[in-house]
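Hypothesis: this fold can be encoded by more than one sequence.
Test: take the structure tokens below, design a sequence, compare later.
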């Protein structure tokens, strides 16, 4: 069996240590983050990494058994020396586009990049274009597309078990670019089709006037007739939920703790009208780590020429929808048609607004300070 040579650029939380934080459960099944996914997958060998921070390189090499000479300060040197097949880019969105472009032009077969994919639409456009021109499969880590429960919900939709889909609602307090990329993409995945226009309502006029990430809500109109609603502002007792409503059934996914409730209309109860019957979605006997599932999908994309389940195009769509929601608020709550014509529009993702210190180091310092 071929084993693909894999490496990570950005050796902090999502590159290496996120799984140590105890997030397993809900929508997260470990190994979840990039380094351990490659390490434990039977399809890949984790052979290298790159990061400008000495401590992160040292920790990554020791943790995953990679010799110091194969862990680099300069990602370009790694790309030139290591004959890589798959590269993850897990840095902040501030520098992610240039790193993806460097990897695509260096001859790798696939890139698995963190979300959001970029600040601006122009950057995201270029990432998709360059990967396409170089025959590189680009996966964006809006990871719920690989979650087994959401995959089963998508299968039920495709098989017509819920009838015609009318509405998909996503709830989850978040900044609309950073973790909002998960929420928006989750709604898009289950709604199907492409968003034609949106209305948006942001947390304040002041926040909407700037380019920094912000909370907001959006109403999405899909070209297949489905309507979507995204609430990124506080959700109170609801937590994070996805609700899919069809003419014959309904699926509600609650992520804390994770459970899925299915409602179907039954004609077997007597009477003249169908009766709603509720049931849980059964858990599989075994669940793979999300990262293992993603690696399998990326390898399939390499070998078949197919797109990953969460491709660069889907990542671009989530960013464009977030920006369109904000533009709607800026213009007084008007309908915003997609695609957006001004590709210079951007959102500075919230994870980039804490300075240049890596998130892993910042969190460790904050924990030590109490």
């Amino acid at each position: 069996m071929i084993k693909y040579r894999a490496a990570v650029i950005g050796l902090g939380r999502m590159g290496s240590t996120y799984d140590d934080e105890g997030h397993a459960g809900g929508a997260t099944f470990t190994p979840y983050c990039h380094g351990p996914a490659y390490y434990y997958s039977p399809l890949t060998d984790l052979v290298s990494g790159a990061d400008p921070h000495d401590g992160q390189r040292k920790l990554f090499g020791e943790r995953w058994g990679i010799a110091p000479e194969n862990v680099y300060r300069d990602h370009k040197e790694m790309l030139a020396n290591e004959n890589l097949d798959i590269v993850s880019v897990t840095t902040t969105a501030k520098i992610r586009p240039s790193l993806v472009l460097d990897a695509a032009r260096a001859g790798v077969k696939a890139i698995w990049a963190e979300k959001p994919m970029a600040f601006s639409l122009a950057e995201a456009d270029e990432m998709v274009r360059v990967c396409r021109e170089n025959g590189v499969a680009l996966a964006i880590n809006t990871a719920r597309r690989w979650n087994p429960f959401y995959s089963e919900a998508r299968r039920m939709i495709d098989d017509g078990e819920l009838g015609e889909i009318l509405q998909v609602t996503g709830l989850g307090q978040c900044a609309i670019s950073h973790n909002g990329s998960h929420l928006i993409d989750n709604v898009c995945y289950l709604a199907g089709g492409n968003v034609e226009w949106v209305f948006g309502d942001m947390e304040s006029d002041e926040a909407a006037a700037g380019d920094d990430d912000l909370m907001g809500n959006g109403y999405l109109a899909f070209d297949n007739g489905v309507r979507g609603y995204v609430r990124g502002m506080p959700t109170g007792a609801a937590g994070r939920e996805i609700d899919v409503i069809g003419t014959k059934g309904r699926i509600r996914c609650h992520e804390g703790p994770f459970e899925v409730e299915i409602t179907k209309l039954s004609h077997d109860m007597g009477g003249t009208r169908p009766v709603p019957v509720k049931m849980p979605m059964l858990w599989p006997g075994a669940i793979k780590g999300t990262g293992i599932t993603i690696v399998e999908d990326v390898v399939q994309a390499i070998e078949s020429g197919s797109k990953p389940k969460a491709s660069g195009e889907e990542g671009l769509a989530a960013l464009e929808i977030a920006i369109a929601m904000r533009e709607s608020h800026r213009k007084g709550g008007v309908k915003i048609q997609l695609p957006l014509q001004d590709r210079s529009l951007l959102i500075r993702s919230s994870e980039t607004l804490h300075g240049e210190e890596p998130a892993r180091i910042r969190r460790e310092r904050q924990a030590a300070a109490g």
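The chain has two domains: 4-144+289-310, 147-282+317-337. The first helix runs from residue 13 to 17.
Hypothesis status: open.
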